[in-house]
Amino acid sequence: MTLTKEQQLQQLYQDLQKDRHYRSHRMGTVFVPGVGNPHSSVVLVGEAPGREEEQQRLPFVGRAGQNLNALMDRVGWARDRLFVTNLVKYRPLSESGGNRKPTLGESRHALSYLLRELAILDSQWVICLGSSAAAVLLGRPGLKMFEVNGKVLPWNQRRLFVTYHPSPLNYNNPLRRQELFKSFDYLQQALPII
Fold first, then answer.
1. What value does the mean pLDDT of the chain take?
2. Which of 80-89, 90-99, 137-146 shows the highest mean pLDDT?
3. Which of 19, 60, 73, 143 is most buried per CB count within 10 Å?
4. Tens digit of pLDDT for each residue in 22-69?
5. What CATH code is carried by the domain that includes residue 71?
6. Which residues contact 62 (CB under 8 A, 6 or more apart)?
7. Which of 1-5, 161-165, 190-194 has the highest mean pLDDT?
8. Is residue 63 in a domain?
């Protein structure tokens, strides 16, 4: 019997949560799965959940999520027609209990699960929100945004597109906000209606 995409994702998320090496001692305890339409031709991949995402158990619901919603509204995309996920599915914690960037080791361990997730989704487009997911997917740990921002890169017979993360730091910076607008305007033209 063939499992549906939803069933395959459920199995993947169960496997991930059982993996004792996935969640380091410097991560929160709340698992935040990807959400949305698993049959979409587009998947958006961020870095990791933050405090708000952890509280709601949903990706991109905090301030960065509000900015992402504004970008999608700008180009007429409905969030429920896409799939949204993160490279790392637990919140990386700083010593003070705030958010932090995942370590290279945490990102590399999370990669095998993200690759499984992307294989299940089988989307034509993988849109990396920020360089963290792109660096790991492309096998380029020192990747800089200026090298890949706004570019379509071939990856695993799919199109990988990298743009700035919609974090308040980027969204409130006029130059980066313009880059985000440019990226989403390009995607609106390049992608089939979603």
1. 94
2. 80-89
3. 60
4. 998 899 999 999 999 999 999 999 999 999 999 999 999 999 999 999
5. 3.40.470.10
6. 50, 51, 52, 53
7. 161-165
8. yes
